[in-house]
Amino acid sequence: MKQLLSFDGVNAGYGAARVLHNLNLDVAEGDRVALIGRNGVGKTTLVNSLLGVASVRAGRVSINGRVQGRPRPYRAANQGVMIVPQGRRIVANLSVEENLRLGAAVKRPGPWHLDSVYRLFPILEERAHTPGTALSGGQQQMLAIGRAMMANPSLMILDEPTDGLAPVIVDLLADSLNQLADQGTALLLVEQNLSLVARVTRRYYALDKGTVVAEGAVDADDIESLKRHVTI
């Protein structure tokens, strides 16, 4: 099975501060992977190392088997990796539809386009000409995911997608992510909401103090066993 993303002995951080320590992680085609852990253990730093926000000091980050020199978000997108960042980062002064069309800028072929995204998230079509930042938090999360889908990624990375969302919206996101995965997109879900982890992912990595301390299959019937990794 083709490896889409690999972290091999990665040390990364900000300025003089090192956050990730000898981190190893792999996501292959069709994978549904969760990255779990308490606040402040380095989960978002892993995402930021792909965006070029955090500096990789040692080790290798590979996308589709290609070692990345100096990671940049557009390079990841061009290679089929789309990131839905924490906080959604909806572009102000652009409508919902204009925000969605930004995701199509990489021009990758695939099943996701405006009509298919609107079928998945009908509220986005209803509010297509509304400023993206005027949507509710849950609707903005749908927009952020829809924008990433428009790039037809082979891998989507979502950083804390349920942060601040009501349970009914979390349920909708779970259904949407499962539909996305069923279409063949691999998922790396950076998340503390174990209900979503159980419903969407099949295996996990647990992070503590910037390194992987546990990994294995996600057992939806025994999700309680993972709570020790996310309890503050």
UniProtKB/TrEMBL annotation:
<protein>
    <submittedName>
        <fullName>ABC transporter ATP-binding protein</fullName>
    </submittedName>
</protein>
<dbReference type="InterPro" id="IPR003439">
    <property type="entry name" value="ABC_transporter-like_ATP-bd"/>
</dbReference>
<dbReference type="InterPro" id="IPR027417">
    <property type="entry name" value="P-loop_NTPase"/>
</dbReference>
<dbReference type="Pfam" id="PF00005">
    <property type="entry name" value="ABC_tran"/>
</dbReference>
<dbReference type="InterPro" id="IPR052156">
    <property type="entry name" value="BCAA_Transport_ATP-bd_LivF"/>
</dbReference>
<dbReference type="InterPro" id="IPR017871">
    <property type="entry name" value="ABC_transporter-like_CS"/>
</dbReference>
<keyword id="KW-0029">Amino-acid transport</keyword>
<keyword id="KW-0067">ATP-binding</keyword>
<comment type="similarity">
    <text>Belongs to the ABC transporter superfamily.</text>
</comment>
<keyword id="KW-0813">Transport</keyword>
<keyword id="KW-0547">Nucleotide-binding</keyword>
<dbReference type="GO" id="GO:0005524">
    <property type="term" value="F:ATP binding"/>
</dbReference>
<feature type="domain" description="ABC transporter">
    <location>
        <begin position="5"/>
        <end position="232"/>
    </location>
</feature>
<dbReference type="InterPro" id="IPR003593">
    <property type="entry name" value="AAA+_ATPase"/>
</dbReference>
